Amino acid sequence: MNALIVLLHGVGSTPADMAPLAGLIAAHDADARVAVPPATWPCDRGGAGYQWFSVDGITDANRPGRIRAALPAFVATVEDLQREYGVTPERTVLAGFSQGAAMALAACQDRFLARHVVAIAGRSAPLPDAWERRTTVALVHGRMDRTVPVQHSERAFERLAALGADVRLDVVPRAVHLLAPPLLERAWRAIDMTSWQCY
Fold this sequence. Notes:
- The chain has helices at residues 19-28, 63-85, 99-107, 151-162, 183-195; strands at residues 4-8, 33-35, 41-42, 50-51, 92-97, 116-120, 136-142, 167-172.
- The longest helix has 23 residues, at 63-85.
- 34% of the residues lie in helices and 18% in strands.
- It has one domain (4-195): Rossmann fold (3-Layer(aba) Sandwich), CATH 3.40.50.
- The strands form two sheets. A six-stranded parallel sheet has the order 2-1-5-6-7-8, sandwiched between helices.
- It is an alpha/beta fold.
């Protein structure tokens, strides 16, 4: 039985924005089970997108609190999908882009929600002071990302490694903050590697 791969979009986006990654997964594995839920709230910056938490007036000081407040709804979304697909955390991969990555990293610090987290162009806010050891992490980040600088993933890698987590960092030299080549292919590679390890 294949793993359940949950794709988590960024702020102001919709599940359709994860289509390039979902399509790449399907092209390599026609039987892959992929779920792409919308974030909890309509985006408060207008448009048709969604958000896990508001970035209106966001600062380094208030971001951790907003993420903590958003966690119950995020965890409920993932657990609902696990029940729907009949899988356990051991057979779940969370692959998030930007805000989706931040939520996946936050949710797995102190609970076993997924066997693997693939955090694409995200940040851990704040850096964790604990980590659920059964959850492995792949951090994928573009070197030229100006929206969420690569230093966020580099610092997360250092902290997670210090906490004893099974963590990898893949910095993509020419990639920006966009789920497009070459970042897209490296994200797929990380998901493919982790999904085959679910057992």
